[in-house]
């Protein structure tokens, strides 16, 4: 560091995770899980909104990223750097883009080798742009907005899918489900939250649904928080769509599902896209009846992969609910460390180049082979899940499916 | 005059700071402090000198921010033009809010709440109309050049902000030393007495809210150019309104340097609590809250009150009349 | 254009939702009407009460309606103590200090909750969560009907306390003439703290009636604060009947606004009404002081 002013006063929030968790994943054996004292640790910045309105998701991201670091260290650290351990530098964006960006600035100066950040699209936009100023490698964990990747930043990468991809996938799969059904859906109503993820998704869906013969009878945008969903559900009741398509955060999803049950809504199916709750074990456990047979198009792991299931078990052993935030942040760290491993250096340009050429084996995800294009992993894809008998099953695409689709749900 | 000399000296010293500070982190911190001071000074004109507490300065801030962003993204208009337009439109919003409230004599907590309601109306509207990008927000294309008011280095952003902030502080210095300022403070301290002396409270308060709105709007323009992304809750959400009032109240209401003290104190507090406490979610904010409460318990007139009492000087602002609701 | 057949159910639903808002606003109108302070910590205290109801239910198995006998008294004690030990001391006679101190308290309480309870959204499951009454061909969830009754009863009780008791007379005197009240020997600090305590206790009632149809998380209170302030001003500050009426009106406006303008844009109705009332009738609909 060449500061003329002492930066010690700004504090270092470092967190060395040297846990006893057994070596998982990575497919590497033979390295003893002892610290190799001679190699300097490699610092990775984790910026997540662990306080404020989206604290739950932010904390889930942080936990997932920390698990990845623990696993990497237990498996021998970064071998091309003499088994260097990975050290997490933690920061809280408090849900505000400007605080996220400030934290990234601090981390860049502290000399982190890369940053995993965001959770929300708005924060990811700010953090990646700030990291770009120092060319610091930045992996977006969740942020699904396509505009994050369309700015041509050379340091910004995303291993998970964006919402353009997800919406297309959701429509194609819905078409397939519909075709296979004896009683296909002909009408749909979209209920989405008002920020970038809900609005963006809804716009894409309402554009494409007519092309597969589904008439969108109404699109309802609601605020966060919406304190009462009865009004929305009354409109559902009067329009009687075959399909209800929610795209919203967990709290609103829970209220919506509850209210639909109170008002005795009957539809052929509930097909959410990036629904906050339908792919959340907490919701399924707390509302087994309300959740039953809800379908979701969302980020998910590959249920047929040994590695994925081991990670899920390990996360649940720590008391975590295994939501998509956990494994997406886990993957983001894995992708970043893999790039450092291949680069054999923490030189920023080299790591960015390695990230751009990433071909990480992500068979524990329902992804095609990893292939980066303008920073976006083109192999990334969501899956369709359905809640069946109190569990979340993958129903589409068939190579990852663990159960058959039940549609229509009241048929 | 001593105050003016101090002000000019201070900003002159600040202007050369980037030559000595090469740390981007420190530059960013200074920028954020200055930005908070600008927000706070804007609020201080109306709240501190005019005694009209607003909970909705986001209405001005967001209008400035959206103006510069919408003009660039939707119409391809240069941000330097947008900066001027942003300030003007923020003033227009201020004129509308001021006219519809002061004309009916709203004050105290009624005024506070109605400004909040206006900000909410604007937030909801910006969430619904297409040209603001609604819920998806507006992303200003990254294209650094001075003509685009986007800079690679923090120092240039700093100088831009410093210039705006200097004008704001200069304006407040003028308020403290002019006939207009005397009238404004007279209206704050006792509206009826001021009227009896021939002051037109409506006119005076309108001028104050216009100036206040202008600088808040300029702060919004700066935010948009610095972070290049806006959505309705960033622009019109309550956190900007709260920061705007927190800064001058902590630093000292109705004082020239109060917003600067407040901005420095609050940012130092937030940085220190974050680095001291570590990573348990929420813990640093708890400490922040506790320290905030303690400061109020022991320094009831804000930091400049504290500084004045330490140096034995009479505070610039007299005790505000108790609000009778 | 929405189906006109759902206008009536929507209005009925708006009334029950509005009653819940009124419950949050009742406490606020007392605090605001007597102490003339804008209590930024109101939402945080509501959140605290909701956690109280939640843990009583999940840990001890106490039904939320039984918790009505436990949570409000505890909230009263919390409110009384806060006012006496922190807010009065910090005010130094200046409004802006009260503003800051309640803001500080809100930050502390919300983040303590985040530390202690984590950020998870929590819900309780009661036997009647999904039960409904059928009224005029509309399904109204039972908990909402109880909340409606609770709001009316609470408003009535508050009215009685303020108008028919010695404490109420002291509170009214203090609200009107703080200096005069002090002269005639009213212990102002005690009465202020009682008012604040009662206002906060009301949040305890609101929490018990709200949780069966809602959830709790550390920031849940903020969603209610703004709407509660709107109701207080709409009803006339310090007026309990006004708060009840204001709550019902806001509930219906929100429902109809959602129906005709869309759920997101429809929220604008609340604030437009608020602005119009403030401008043309700043004392509120039933505007007279406590």
Automatic annotation (TrEMBL), chain A:
PANTHER family reported for this sequence: ABC TRANSPORTER SUBSTRATE-BINDING PROTEIN, LEUCINE-SPECIFIC-BINDING PROTEIN
Keyword hit for Lyase: no
PROSITE patterns: TAT
Domain (Leucine-binding protein) ranges: 41-381
Family, per entry: Belongs to the leucine-binding protein family.
Claim: Transport is one of the keywords in the record: yes
SUPFAM superfamilies to which the protein is assigned, alphabetical: Periplasmic binding protein-like I (SSF53822)
Organism: Roseibium limicola
Pfam families the record matches: Peripla_BP_6 (PF13458)
Keyword terms of this UniProt record: Amino-acid transport, Signal, Transport
UniProt protein name: ABC transporter substrate-binding protein
Automatic annotation (TrEMBL), chain B:
Places the protein is found: Cell membrane
Transmembrane segments: 25-46, 53-74, 80-99, 111-136, 156-175, 208-229, 249-269, 276-298
Any one GO MF annotation of this record: branched-chain amino acid transmembrane transporter activity
Its membrane topology: Multi-pass membrane protein
Highest taxon of the lineage: Bacteria
Record-linked Pfam families: BPD_transp_2
Protein name: Branched-chain amino acid ABC transporter permease
Gene Ontology terms: cellular component: plasma membrane
The UniProt record lists the keyword Disulfide bond: no
Keywords: Cell membrane, Membrane, Transmembrane, Transmembrane helix
TrEMBL record, chain C:
Pfam assignment, any one: BPD_transp_2
GO BP: amino acid transport
Sorted UniProt keywords: Amino-acid transport, Cell membrane, Membrane, Transmembrane, Transmembrane helix, Transport
Gene Ontology MF terms: transmembrane transporter activity
Highest taxon listed in the record's lineage: Bacteria
Keyword Transmembrane helix recorded: yes
Transmembrane parts of this sequence: 12-33, 40-60, 66-86, 98-117, 145-162, 191-212, 224-253, 260-280
Annotated CDD domains: TM_PBP1_LivH_like
Localisation: Cell membrane
GO CC annotation: plasma membrane
InterPro entries: ABC_transp_permease, BCAA_transport_permease
Topology within the bilayer: Multi-pass membrane protein
Family: Belongs to the binding-protein-dependent transport system permease family. LivHM subfamily.
Name of the protein this chain belongs to: Branched-chain amino acid ABC transporter permease
Lineage: Bacteria, Pseudomonadati, Pseudomonadota, Alphaproteobacteria, Hyphomicrobiales
């Amino acid at each position: 560091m060449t500061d003329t002013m002492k930066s010690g006063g700004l504090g270092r929030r470092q967190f060395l995770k040297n846990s006893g968790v057994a070596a998982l994943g990575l497919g590497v054996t033979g390295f003893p899980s002892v610290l190799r004292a001679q190699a300097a640790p490699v610092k990775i910045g984790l910026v997540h909104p662990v306080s404020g309105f989206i604290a739950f998701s932010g904390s889930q991201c942080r936990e997932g990223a920390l698990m990845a670091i623990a696993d990497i260290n237990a498996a021998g650290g970064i071998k091309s750097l003499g088994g260097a351990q990975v050290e997490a530098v933690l920061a809280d964006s408090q849900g505000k883009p400007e605080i996220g960006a400030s934290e990234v600035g601090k981390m860049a100066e502290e000399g982190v080798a890369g940053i995993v950040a965001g959770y929300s699209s708005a924060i990811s936009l700010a953090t990646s742009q700030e990291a770009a100023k120092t060319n610091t490698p930045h992996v977006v964990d969740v942020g699904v907005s396509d505009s994050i990747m369309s700015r041509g930043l050379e340091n910004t990468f995303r291993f998970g899918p964006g919402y353009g991809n997800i919406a297309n996938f959701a429509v194609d799969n819905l078409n397939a489900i519909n075709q296979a059904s004896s009683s296909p859906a002909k009408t749909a109503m979209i209920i989405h939250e008002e920020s970038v993820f809900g609005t963006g998704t809804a716009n894409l869906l309402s554009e494409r649904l007519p092309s597969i013969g589904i008439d969108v009878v109404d699109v309802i945008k609601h605020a966060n928080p919406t304190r009462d969903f009865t009004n929305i559900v009354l409109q559902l009741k009067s329009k009687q769509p075959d399909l209800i398509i929610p795209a919203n955060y967990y709290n609103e999803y829970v209220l919506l599902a509850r209210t639909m049950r109170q008002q005795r809504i009957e539809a052929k199916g509930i097909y959410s896209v990036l629904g906050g709750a339908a792919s959340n074990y907490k919701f399924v456990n707390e509302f087994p009846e309300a959740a039953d047979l809800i379908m979701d198009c969302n980020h998910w792991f590959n249920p047929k992969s040994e590695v994925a299931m081991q990670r899920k078990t390990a996360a649940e052993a720590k008391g975590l609910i295994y939501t998509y935030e956990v494994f997406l942040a886990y993957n983001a760290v894995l992708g970043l460390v893999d790039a450092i491993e291949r680069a054999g250096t923490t030189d920023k340009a080299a790591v960015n180049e390695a990230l751009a050429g990433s071909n990480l084996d992500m068979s524990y995800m329902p992804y095609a082979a990893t292939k980066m294009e303008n920073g976006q992993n083109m192999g990334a894809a969501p899956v369709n899940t359905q809640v069946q008998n109190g569990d979340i099953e993958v129903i589409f695409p068939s190579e990852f499916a663990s159960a058959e689709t039940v549609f229509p749900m009241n048929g | 005059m001593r105050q003016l000399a101090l002000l000019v000296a201070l900003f002159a010293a600040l202007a050369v700071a980037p030559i000595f500070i090469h740390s981007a982190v420190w530059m960013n911190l200074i920028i954020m402090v200055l930005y908070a001071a600008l927000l706070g000074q804007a609020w201080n004109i109306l709240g501190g000198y005019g005694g009209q507490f607003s909970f909705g300065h986001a209405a001005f801030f967001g209008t400035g921010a959206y103006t510069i962003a919408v003009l660039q993204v939707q119409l391809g208009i240069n941000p330097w033009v947008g900066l001027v337009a942003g300030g003007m439109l923020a003033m227009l919003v201020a004129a509308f809010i001021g006219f519809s409230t002061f004309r009916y004599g709203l004050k105290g907590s009624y005024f506070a709440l109605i400004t909040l309601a206006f900000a909410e109306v604007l937030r909801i509207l910006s969430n619904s109309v297409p040209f603001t990008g609604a819920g998806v927000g507006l992303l200003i294309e990254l294209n650094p050049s001075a003509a685009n008011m986007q800079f690679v280095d923090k120092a240039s952003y700093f100088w831009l902000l410093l210039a705006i902030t200097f004008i704001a502080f200069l304006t407040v210095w003028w308020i403290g030393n002019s006939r207009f300022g005397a009238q404004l403070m007279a209206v704050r301290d006792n509206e009826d007495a001021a009227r009896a002396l021939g002051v037109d409270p409506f006119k005076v308060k309108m001028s104050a809210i216009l100036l206040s709105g202008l600088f808040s709007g300029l702060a919004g323009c700066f935010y948009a150019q610095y972070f290049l992304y806006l959505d309705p809750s960033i622009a019109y959400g309550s956190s900007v309104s709260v920061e705007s009032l927190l800064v001058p109240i902590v630093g000292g209401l109705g004082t020239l340097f109060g917003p600067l003290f407040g901005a420095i104190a609050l940012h130092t507090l937030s940085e220190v609590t974050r680095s001291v406490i570590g990573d348990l979610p929420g813990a640093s904010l708890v400490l922040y809250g506790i320290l905030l409460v303690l400061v109020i318990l022991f320094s009831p007139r804000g930091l400049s009150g504290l500084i004045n009492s330490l140096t034995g000087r009479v505070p610039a602002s007299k005790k505000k009349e108790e609000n009778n609701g | 254009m929405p189906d006109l057949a759902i206008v009536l159910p929507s209005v009925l639903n708006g009334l029950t939702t509005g009653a819940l808002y009124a419950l949050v606003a009742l406490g606020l109108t007392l605090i605001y009407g007597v102490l003339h302070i804008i209590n930024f910590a109101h939402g945080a205290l509501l959140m605290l009460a909701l956690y109280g109801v939640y843990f009583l239910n999940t840990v001890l198995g106490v039904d939320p309606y039984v918790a009505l006998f436990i949570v409000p008294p505890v909230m009263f004690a919390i409110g009384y103590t806060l006012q006496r030990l922190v807010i009065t001391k910090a005010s130094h006679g200046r409004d802006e200090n009260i503003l800051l101190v309640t803001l500080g308290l809100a930050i502390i309480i919300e983040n303590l909750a985040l530390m202690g309870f984590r950020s998870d959204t929590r819900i309780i499951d009661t036997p009647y969560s999904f039960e409904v009454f059928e009224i005029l061909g509309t399904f109204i969830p039972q908990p909402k009907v109880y909340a409606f009754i609770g709001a009316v009863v609470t408003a009535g009780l508050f009215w009685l306390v303020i108008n028919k008791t010695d404490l109420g007379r002291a509170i009214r005197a203090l609200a009107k003439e703080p200096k005069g009240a002090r002269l005639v020997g009213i212990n102002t600090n005690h009465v202020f703290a009682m008012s604040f305590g009662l206002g906060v206790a009301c949040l305890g009632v609101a929490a018990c009636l709200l949780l069966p149809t809602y959830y709790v998380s550390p920031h849940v209170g903020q969603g209610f604060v703004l709407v509660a302030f709107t109701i207080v001003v709409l009803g006339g500050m310090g007026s309990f009947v006004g708060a009840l009426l204001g709550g019902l009106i806001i509930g219906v406006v929100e429902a109809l606004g959602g129906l005709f303008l869309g759920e997101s844009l429809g929220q604008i109705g609340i604030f437009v009404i608020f602005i119009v009332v403030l401008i043309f009738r700043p004392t509120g609909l039933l505007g007279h002081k406590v």
